[in-house]
Amino acid sequence: MPMDLESLKTKFYQLVAPSLPNEWDVEAALEPLLDYEAEYLDGIFSQVPAIWPVSHSLCFAYLNAAGPALSCLAVEELSLWVHSLLDRYETGGLREARLFMADVEQQYACRLRGEGGVRLLDVRSRLQPYVNGLAGKEMPLVAADEVGTDSESIFLPNTIGVLQTHEHNFFLYKLIVSFQWASLSSGMYTAPQWLEVTRKSAHPLDRFFSGFSEPEKARSLYHIFETARVLNFLRHELPGLMREAGVILPLLPLTGDDSSQLNLLDWLQRGLLRGQWPVSSSSPLLARAVALMQRYQEEEVDNLVSLEAVRELMPLVPATEVFTGTSPLLFQGIMRLQEMRNLGAKEQTDKELRLMMTMKAQLPPKVNKTTQPHLEPGNTAGQEAADTALVIDTDSAWEQLPPFLHSLAQRIDNSESQPSEQAADQESSGKSGVVEQASSASGVGKSGQLFSRLSRGPADAKTEEKTVEPAVYDEWDYRRKGFRKNWCVVTEKELAPVHNTFIEQTLKKYRGQIRRLRYQFELLQTSERFIRRQRDGDDIDFDALVESLADVRAGHPPSDRLFIRLARDQRDIAASFLVDMSNSTAGWVGQSIKEALVLICEAMEVLNDRYAIYGFSGMRRLRCEIFPIKRLEERYSQTVRQRISAIGPREYTRMAPAIRHVSSLFAKVEAKVRLLIVLSDGKPEDYDDYKGEYAIEDTRHALLEAKAMGIHPFCITIDRQAHEYMAHMYGEVNYIFIDKINQLPSRMSEIYRTLTS
């Protein structure tokens, strides 16, 4: 029985509490649902808690679209549809999510049945290793409006849905990347020697096309002839792919269907895809073009043949023949010649700069300090003599360079004189003017200025905060029972060492305890155990002997495994300590955590256990920060001690991204036992809506992911409310609560000894 509007509003407000949306927005979203039965309404409303925290606008749009969606989906399929809807929203925004909901049949139901379009986002993980294997290097796949390549990346459409089935559309993606790779490997963009190549200008092929009265026609002709050549190249290099392509190519859409209106490009496309070559034609242009293109199927040639074909055919193409209405084939894409030229120019400049630096390193020193005249204070004549010696030495080095490097240096010198630098020079014109006058007066020319620039070293790396490339991780959303893809950005940041007396005071304060810990840890270096029922050993296994005698009495053959052997096993343990650096650790909490780290490091120096220490903090999902205090293979040194001293309160406690990051690093470590020990003073929480049950469930899932990698997590917490959620996150025996913070340093070492004994 349908429900009334007030009942629907009451139910909706209960689901989104404590939020209080505008009543008129709620009524507008719920009115289309009044005619639906209770069963359908329960299914629709069951997804509201998953969508509302992500976007209120998306939730209202969902309520408007959910009813029509049930015309092609079963109620139990709504959760899967909503999961895909949220993925679309988080990757493409509200507009893409609305487009996804507007056509449920094509956007989702067809895919559910194995039909319909394919998204690049869904297939990139399969395509990227494939194209990297073809190219022999990393060649990123980038979403773009038009297919093509700039020689470093391959550009693909966001979605392909021109064919009927999911498999065919995926194969079309594969054909596109194969064709773009083959266009580079077969030399489609190679400039022949007779085409002039000049610096900082258009691509040589563009200059070739500009030699005709209609360059775009020449460009289109060259591209279609090269397409035929590249397809023939693929038939030799990837015959299996092209056998499958024989089924797909005839299905691709073409521009026109009226044979009386087809232009030259239309006919050549039909011939390539469907073998519909014109049998007879009164057009000498078409007949000659077909004859030239069919040559590619008979022999292997280079792009010179295509250039000659363009040169031969362009005079025959009438001015009334228009190619603009004929779109390139989907796998063809467009030729990005200028982008290739720009990348090539940049690579050439970088190469020349590296060459100059190499030459500079091999040159003799500019000034021989042992032969410099001694300068008395106020001795201007001696100063002038030193300046002259410097100029002569620099110019001598300059003359030692090969002649071709002189012009190269001139180009580099010119390239560095940018407007921004000139503006900066003008701001300090007083000082720079004096320097320039002095250089001019002493006779230092461009060679001296150039070598002066080359002698400038990079900034001192120790004074800069080093960072590595950020890592992106999913986040578990328990409400939708799925991940928010690529949601959290984790950045490793170097923790600047702090020089203070903290380490000395801690070692002095706990010196007696450290001695005891070292002794206890020495006993852990090897473990001893008895192995029973061995063929040889140190003592007799009486249980096995009794069983053997009983077997003899019973008429059975006795066992020869009658001994006990004492086995000494070497430890193979790796541990990673993950330290909470949120702002709630200020004061005695942070002090005790640092003291505990010092004690555990000092004690573990007598073991062979490998261990790492990472701090974590951050604010919101795009700024999750990890601070390496001691990496796994790094020795416990003075620098590590100073990093421990630098540990201090920062921001919030978004714990799951840190766990996922450390687990991903730890998963590559070969060890019999891998421990992940988390030190935290509270539950996971962040500035945004990352709190409560959501944060706990995400952290729990991150710990489950770590366990799936063979990593054993354990938590040491000082949160007095830990019993409410720790057992759920870590498991009943995988955490410990320390109620007195001053006990943390001594208890932490005992806990580690217990875990690894």
From TrEMBL:
<feature type="compositionally biased region" description="Polar residues">
    <location>
        <begin position="415"/>
        <end position="442"/>
    </location>
</feature>
<feature type="compositionally biased region" description="Basic and acidic residues">
    <location>
        <begin position="459"/>
        <end position="468"/>
    </location>
</feature>
<dbReference type="InterPro" id="IPR036465">
    <property type="entry name" value="vWFA_dom_sf"/>
</dbReference>
<dbReference type="Pfam" id="PF00092">
    <property type="entry name" value="VWA"/>
</dbReference>
<dbReference type="InterPro" id="IPR051928">
    <property type="entry name" value="NorD/CobT"/>
</dbReference>
<feature type="region of interest" description="Disordered">
    <location>
        <begin position="413"/>
        <end position="468"/>
    </location>
</feature>
<protein>
    <submittedName>
        <fullName>VWA domain-containing protein</fullName>
    </submittedName>
</protein>
<feature type="domain" description="VWFA">
    <location>
        <begin position="574"/>
        <end position="751"/>
    </location>
</feature>
<dbReference type="InterPro" id="IPR002035">
    <property type="entry name" value="VWF_A"/>
</dbReference>
